[in-house]
Write a structure and sequence with these properties.
The protein is an all-alpha fold. The protein has helices spanning 5-10, 15-25, 29-47, 55-72, 75-108, 115-136, 142-153, 160-172, 176-187, 193-205, 209-219, 227-236, 242-255.
Length: 256
């Protein structure tokens, strides 16, 4: 429903869609609030001179929307993509509004001081962009998820949500390659307590020898009293691969 709010305000929806949105708004406070926020933003845009961003901005969004609709029409992927794509499209729709407003405020700042408003808007755009990345970690193919991890890791500033997303991927993704990529991405923050503890915990969760050895090699570069017990658990576990155990023994000697 949220993706229809802009067109609902612009009165460009068909009768059926318009009725659907109206009925939903009558019983959904969250969407009512979103409608009010969107209306206020559009009002700010209308109050400025006609200095608008390129029409390609909105066209690109709708092109993306149509492409994703085409993908979700495929029977084998439709159920997997529906929830994640709805979330992605909703966030993308908000980005269209905020980027358009950013162009206007950027122009308006040349006429009078509006730096606080511009800074606040830029922060909101950054937050929405991050949400796109986090939602994209549910993409159906491993290569797409690896690409998203690399994009998240290229962010200029680390934040809790980014670390949580990478940690969850490291421990829960079905693809070994995706989990390995998440480990490498997190290795840049191995001295952050949250990440360090996540590495120690993940060592007991992973069953693939490659991931176990990678984590061991990371942990032996960190000084922490909790690492030795974790390595000993690997050595004492009869189900662990012998080469992994040997790596843990070497790591334990380094820690000592």
């Amino acid at each position: 429903i949220e993706i229809l709010l802009i067109d609902y305000l612009d009165e460009t929806l068909g009768d059926e869609e318009k009725q659907l949105v109206a009925e939903h708004l009558s019983c959904c406070d969250k969407c009512k609030e979103k409608l009010s926020e969107t209306k206020n933003l559009l009002g700010l845009i209308d109050n400025q001179k006609q200095v608008l961003p390129s029409a390609g901005l909105k066209m690109n969004f709708y092109q993306m929307l149509e492409e994703e609709k085409g993908k979700t029409d495929q029977p084998s992927e439709k159920r997997e993509l529906t929830v994640s794509m709805r979330k992605l499209i909703s966030i993308a729709a908000q980005l269209v509004v905020f980027v358009a407003l950013g162009v206007l405020i950027g122009w308006y700042s040349g006429q009078k001081s509006s730096q606080p408003e511009l800074a606040q808007l830029n922060q909101k755009i950054d937050q929405l962009s991050q949400q796109v990345h986090y939602a994209s970690l549910n993409q159906p193919t491993a290569s797409q998820r690896i690409k998203v991890i690399n994009e998240i890791n290229s962010a200029e500033q680390v934040n809790e949500k980014m670390l949580d997303a990478l940690i969850n991927t490291m421990n829960g993704d079905e693809s070994v390659n995706v989990r390995l990529t998440a480990i490498y991405a997190l290795s840049d923050y191995k001295h952050v307590p949250k990440v360090k503890d996540a590495f120690i915990e993940s060592l007991s969760l992973q069953s693939d020898p490659l991931l176990q050895v990678t984590l061991i090699n990371l942990l032996i570069t960190i000084k922490d009293s909790k690492i030795k017990p974790a390595l000993k658990d690997i050595i004492d576990n009869e189900q662990i691969d012998s080469q992994v155990k040997e790596q843990a023994k070497q790591g334990l000697s380094v820690q000592i």
